[in-house]
Write a structure and sequence with these properties.
With about 300 residues, this protein is an alpha/beta fold. The protein has two domains: about 5-140, Rossmann fold (3-Layer(aba) Sandwich); about 150-295, 3-Layer(aba) Sandwich (Rossmann fold). Helices cover about 35% and strands about 20% of the residues. It has eight helices and ten strands. It has helices spanning about 15-30, 50-75, 90-100, 120-125, 175-190, 215-230, 245-255, 280-285; strands at about 5-10, 35-40, 80-85, 105-110, 135-140, 165-170, 190-200, 240-245, 260-265, 290-295. The longest helix has 24 residues, at about 50-75. It is globular and about 70 Å long.
Length: about 300
């Protein structure tokens, strides 16, 4: 069964941008697109509503969905599209949707309250509870922003795609991140920029003269992790960079010219709830391109 890309809509400008990005991604991947709007007590489309206090939120939700459907169909008419109102709180509704989705797409940095239910704590709660990759899209990110600018600095959708950037922590299993990042780069015919930030320990024992310096060790370790993926995706150009710096600094620099940033989220078995790491939180605050958060062991 083909799994769809699912978008959570809440009426904010961020969620509308998320729907547009998801439609383009669905077209690139050849996947169906599913738009959902969730709210506690929200009647289904087929249910007859008589109470005014229920009619107002249903009408508003229907307007949000219909508007997004019209825009998506105008932008990507070939994408198979469905839309549904869900009568549950946003977090459990989206967590449930993610279980049968190939990708979950949400708006990033919304207003909060009724106009931004998927922003802030709700989006964070969803990201930390699902194993499906989640892409967060900021307001104002348009199709043209996915492409490199011309020589005069003007961007065009006819230009090549910007690179896909992926931040790696070699102390963890990176297969899920690399699988997502290489697929994204191949679907865009874009280069992949793989970044690994390393730091020397506070104390370091002496080394023999024949030992490789720390930078060479880091570069070798990064290349060793990437080599099997280079073989699997020979059509993807890979730029690998091992930096002696803080991970946040490396990630923010890599994202400056990227069209998509891929970050990992470690799954904590047996832990109550979930969390995003410091690097991911900082990226969500400061990075303008979409951010894919991929869960890994």
């Amino acid at each position: 069964m083909v799994r769809p890309i699912v978008v959570g809509l809440d009426g904010s400008r961020e969620s509308v941008c998320a729907a547009h990005w998801a439609a383009r991604e669905a077209a690139r991947r050849g996947l169906p697109l599913r738009l959902v709007h969730a709210g506690e007590g929200m009647p289904k489309d087929s249910e007859t509503v008589s109470l005014p206090e229920l009619k107002v939120p249903q009408c508003r939700a229907r307007t949000i969905l219909d508007g997004a459907v019209d825009q998506v169909r105008a932008q990507c008419p070939s994408v198979r599209l469905t839309a549904e109102l869900i009568g549950r709180l946003p977090v459990p509704a989206l967590v449930a949707e993610a279980e049968s989705a190939e990708l979950l797409v949400l708006g990033s940095q919304g207003f909060g309250g009724l106009g931004g239910l998927l922003a802030g704590s709700v989006a964070t709660a969803v990201v930390t509870r699902v194993r499906t990759p989640v892409v967060l899209v900021r307001e104002g990110f348009a199709a043209v922003d996915e492409h490199v600018p011309n020589g005069d600095g003007q961007a065009s959708v006819g230009n090549p795609y910007r690179p896909v950037a992926v931040a790696l922590d070699l102390a963890h299993d990176c297969d899920s991140l690399l699988d997502f990042a290489f697929e994204a780069a191949r679907n865009r015919a874009a280069p992949l920029h793989a970044v690994y930030a390393w730091r020397l320990p506070h104390t370091r024992t002496g080394t023999d003269e024949g030992d490789m310096p720390a930078r060479s060790d880091a570069e070798w370790a990064l290349d060793s992790m990437l080599d099997p993926w280079r073989d699997k995706y020979p059509d993807v150009t890979v730029h690998a960079e091992a930096e002696h710096t803080r991970p946040v600094h490396a990630v923010l620099r890599a994202a400056e010219h990227a069209g998509l940033l891929v970050l990992g989220r470690e799954i904590r078995r047996g832990a109550v709830g979930g969390r995003t790491g410091h690097v991911t939180r900082m990226a969500i605050q400061h990075v303008s391109c979409p951010i894919a958060v991929v869960a890994h062991e």
